Amino acid sequence: MTHRELRKKYLDFFLESPRNHQVIPSAPIIPENDPTTLFTSSGMQPLIPFLLGEKHPLGQRLTDSQKSFRAQDINEVGDNRHSTFFEMLGNWSLGDYFKNDQLRWFFTFLTKVLKLDPNKLYVTVYEGDQIVPKDTESVEIWKEIYASVGIDAKVVDSPSSNSGTSAKQGRIFLYPASKNWWSRSGEPEKMPPGEPGGPDSEVFFEFTQIPHDPKFGKQCHPNCECGHFLEIGNSVFMQYQKQADGTLTELPNKNVDFGGGLERLIAATENNPDIFQSDLFFPVIELLSRLSGKKYSDPINQPPMRIITDHLKAATFMLAEGLQPGNKQQGYILRRLIRRSVVKMHKLHLQCSTIEAGIQICQVIGQIYSNVYLYPETKEFSNITSTLSEEIKRFEQVLNKGIKLLEKQPVVDGKLAFDLLQTYGFPWELTAELALERGQKIDFGEFQKEFQKHQELSRNTSKGMFKGGLQNHSEVITRLHTATHLLQQTLRDILGDHVRQKGSNITVQRLRFDFTHPKKLTDQEILDIEKIVNLKIKENLRVNMSITELEQALKNSALTVPGVKYPAKVKVYSIGNFSKEVCGGPHVDFTGLLGKFKIIKEEAAGSNSRRIYATLI
Description:
617 residues, 10-stranded mixed beta sheet, 4-stranded antiparallel beta sheet, 36% helix, 20% strand, Ala-tRNA_ligase
């Protein structure tokens, strides 16, 4: 089954009666108004305000296919099932249906629409603890579902690889919070105040052709890492919200947050445990085989081919959203993906330059997702390949020198690793990986000490990031987001109507706004921009929100972000008679609450694009 077919089947299934969902567009993988994370890593992330009770313009039943990226999986890529970039098929109930409908509908989709054998489906449920009781409701629902297809679903308590309990002894498996509880921060004790979460129920597909590997334990069970089972969907029941005193209270509206990886569902329908053999990846694999003269069927070629395919796919999507390679935050992750791909290309000994290979791979990825998320025939797509080429060229110039230096060293200590980063632009993770491949010792203690001095290079230590909680709706973020509206309209008034938003990012310290403009702003233009924004703040303009049809919003001259797909109904925020935008982010009620607007920096952000950093003081 192709990715286009499966994606359509899923969305159509939830559009149909009696489910009657509304399709919402994928949010960007680079969040605009969430300083707690670098990337959109799940379908629920853009929907947090609505899971907490805010009304969604399209109602209480939603479905989508969300572009997602998980940086924490970079080092896991190389096996047959891990990827950093993926699509998460999702459906949500915002205070509407709950466990009974959700579990039955998903099972119906798997067995009736995708025609999966129910005998190959196993499920997990939350076992409960002193804080939250066992999810007996889900257990009983699953028993009824399996009974309807003639399967006696026995329940297994707390399975593990060394417990002596095998998967063949049960169908419903109970696991602790570490496996069957979902929130953005993890188990209940890790959740910050304000964060929603709840027990979940996962569905696993059994690849009977893969025997259990004893190195993962004596017995196999759904959460075993041997590859015999693959998780293909997770229904999260968002019932609780963490309080300041550490307790969990039930949300007034109980929600369903379902996510199922498109890549993994395709693997299940094809009964093929290698996700890289689906049409979402294999065209790139075939290209790499042609360029290298090496076969994917050879196990030694599989890890580098998978890494290149995944990493350059993720890089292509990041570049498509206007991200530039850099030395901190998202830009650092993008650079790391590209440079790791270049190293793996050298391992394959390609018969062309890595720049040429990178361009061809990017073009193939564009064709895979053509008219879904990417538009390879456009001028904007040529900017993607141009930026990718420049980054590869920059790294190629120093790669061989860095590798030769590494090969000469019996020990890669912290200072050398840091010097490689500073001198050659080697991400520290890449240095560690290359050293380990050569059997060289790594002094992690000194390495970490050196790197700690430059924590801004790490995605986990960026200012304002990863503090947890719903900081995207804090007072500071709300004020900065509202100021971004004033900034865009002011830029259009001063520079011209050609100015359109290309990207936006907000942390608790500042806003960043990327926009179309062919040249550097003059000092006078910057002063004029500050003056007008502060004037509109001083006027204390009212911020009004209305929900309207997208077509009507466009007729009323509401600004949108080019390239973003919007739902049929949208929120429109108007700031007096000065600014009008289609937007879903948080806003203040009056501009007088913002404070003083100050531009910190103005710089280039790619071809015909500029970037402004600003803050409120």
